[in-house]
Each structure stands twice: as structure tokens, then as C-alpha cells.
Amino acid sequence: MHELGIVMNVVEQADRIAADNGAQKIVGITMEIGEVSTVVPELFLDAFNWAKKRTEYLQEAELEMIIIEGRTYCKECGETYRTTEFGKKCPHCGSPETYLLTGDQVIIKDISAVFDTPEQET
Amino acid sequence: MQQVKTILLSKSVFEDNDARAEKLRSGLKEKNICLVNVMSSPGSGKTTLLISLINALKQKYNIGVMEADIDSDKDAVTVAEKTGVRSIQLHTGGMCHLDADMTKQGLDGLGDGLDLIFLENVGNLVCPAEYDTGANVDMVILSVPEGNDKPLKYPLVFQKSDLAVISKTDALPYFNFNMDECREYIRSRNPDASVIAVSAKTGENMDELVNWFIRKLSER
């Protein structure tokens, strides 16, 4: 259900962008999804394939997901580490004084759309 | 002839909602309204706690309540019956959270003349934390039966909350709930959050919670 809410937001935005730019249809959407964003890629894809059927421009759109690794920075020792492996506690020095650098993003990176181009005069 | 072009966006899916929430928040500030987004798991006692809080504050302030659920109007009816304040039920239509647009619709439905509005978000510790509702105060409730490790398991909701309420303290004798550990877990996620432990059932420590809101409202 959580993925569905985000997917609805994505397909609505993409539909609007297609209309605003005069595109015929959208054939691809690339998204960056952080490992610790709470979005489950498999569910996201299922939700996307359901939601695209309800849009005007995305009927044939394929979704590509680039998974961004979660990395956490330790304020104590200055090292970084993989968040999914060690969580909040730094594996280098054991300090809990850490913060997430990257990996919580859900970003629409780009959209591939088909446009009509005027016939070339020969 | 047809050609495929790629339109670069690099845009967060939350960006539009964040912008709408920011606008809503500044509108509320202008009207001097305090909107409190109440988040928790299902069954943490949100509605009971709110009823007791509202009854303690309603002489002093004009209060409204928005109840968000996937379906049913049970909570809105309960709150209206037990407090007499203006209440409205929002249906999320299957969605697990409220966003800024839905919140705005609820505010429009409640009408003008209110000082303090509680928005009881959908019972869920994950999704509501990601969607900014436009509230001025984010509050999370963690009840004793859920266990004291929730701030570790659902960090985001604790990170974004200004106030964490530990509820159902009357149940402490029956559960292995380590209060000190719980406070420490919340502090490690969010050193700035106020943490108040209460029982809405017995009234234990409700004064501290009521005073927190009185102080917050005096800062408007």
C-alpha cells in the first residue's frame, strides 16, 4: 500500500509532464531508489505495472530502478559504512553518533518519451 | 517520423508534497492555528489519549479534530461524542498515510475559528513519517504493550517528531517495558524531542502533557 501511494504520485507526475511537453507517449521511467527508503522494489514494480494502465501516456512504459546503497557517516571517527549491514552503530569505533549520508531517496531520474517530428522535405 | 527523447528530472517523489505542506504550514501560522499531526501504530490508544487531552484543553482553546482512517467514521463519532469539539473524518481511500492535499481538504471541511487542531493520522509507523502533512507539530505515541524497542525499529517517525508520548503507563506492571532504555533510544534518534510518559486511563502525568501544549500554544 505504501508503494502504491508513491507510484500513484510518480505516474501522475509523468502523465502531466508528457502532456505539458506534447509527447505522444512515455516508454520509460528511470527511478533511483534508496536501499533504506522503505520502498520495496518488487512491490513498487507491481504497483507501477498496475497503475500505468490507468494513465493516458504510460500504457507502454517500462520502469527501471537504480538501487542506491545506504551509507552512514560516523561523527566520532569520520568513517563511512554500509547502513543495511550495521545500522546506527559504527562498525569501526562502536559509536552510535552517526547519520545517514545517502540511501533514503526516492527520485524520478528521467523519463523517455516518444515525440512526433515533422516529416523532412526531400 | 517519431523520435524518443529523454527528459531529465532528478526530482524527489516527495518534492511536490513537501512544497504543498510548506505552503499549508505558513498559511496556518498566519492564521495562528496550531496543527498537530498525531502518528502511532494501530491500537496505541491515540483516540483515548486525544479525548483526554482535548477535554483538558477545550475550555482554554477552540479545538478541532481530523480523524484519518482507511475506512469507517468510528473515531470521528467517538471523539465528537466524548469531547463535543468539532470533528471530521477523512478517508484515505486505501492509502496508508495522509498527504498535504488531504490535510488541506480536511482543514477546509473543519472551517474557521480554531486555535488547535489535532490530525489523527492513519495508524502506521512507516508511511505517515515520510509524508509531510503541513502540521506545525509532529507527535508520535508509543504505547507500553508495543515494547520499548520501537524507536530502533521505526527510527524515522521518532526522528521527525517534536513530541514523543509513551502511553498506557498503567500497563507497565504487566509488560517487560524498560522506560529508561526507551527514553535513551528516542534520545539517540532525536535529541530535541520532548518525551512524556502518561496514562490516559488513570490520568497519570497527563498534566505534563497538557502543560506541554499550553506552552506550545503560548509560543504562537
CATH class of the domain at 2-69 and 103-114 in chain A: Alpha Beta
Quaternary structure: heterodimer
- Count the DSSP helices of chain A: 3
What is the CATH topology classification name of chain B?
A: Rossmann fold
Low-confidence stretches of chain A: none
Averaged pLDDT of chain B: 93
CATH class of chain B: Alpha Beta
Give the chain pair forming the largest contact, with residue counts.
A-B, 31 and 29 residues
| Secondary-structure-derived class of chain A | alpha+beta
Tell me what portion of residues of chain A adopts beta-strand conformation: 25-35%
Mean model confidence by pLDDT of chain A: 92
> What structural category arises from helix and sheet content of chain B?
alpha/beta
CATH superfamily of chain B: P-loop containing nucleotide triphosphate hydrolases
- Count of domains of chain B: 1
Q: How widely separated are the two ends of chain B?
A: 61 Å
* Major sheet attributes of chain B: 7 strands, parallel
Alpha-carbon distance between the termini of chain A?
54 Å
Tell me about this structure:
The complex is a heterodimer of chains A (122) and B (220). Chain A is α+β, with helices and mostly antiparallel strands. Chain A has a domain at 2-69 and 103-114: hypothetical protein PF0899 fold (2-Layer Sandwich). Chain A is 28% helix and 33% strand. Chain A is built from 3 helices and 6 strands. In chain A, the strands form 2 sheets. Chain A has a 3-stranded mixed β-sheet, with helices on one face. In chain A, strand 1 (25-34), helix 2 (41-51) and strand 2 form a beta-alpha-beta unit. In chain A, helix 1 (2-20) crosses helix 2. The mean pLDDT of chain A is 92. Chain B has a single domain, classed as Rossmann fold, CATH 3.40.50.300. Chain B has a 7-stranded parallel β-sheet with strand order 4-3-5-2-6-7-8, sandwiched between helices. Chain B contains 9 helices and 8 strands. The radius of gyration of chain B is 18 Å and the shape is globular. In chain B, strand 3, helix 3 and strand 4 (86-91) form a beta-alpha-beta unit. By secondary structure, chain B is α/β, with parallel strands linked by helices. The mean pLDDT of chain B is 93. The interface between A and B is medium-sized, with 31 and 29 residues. Strand 6 (106-116) of chain A pairs antiparallel with strand 1 (2-12) of chain B.
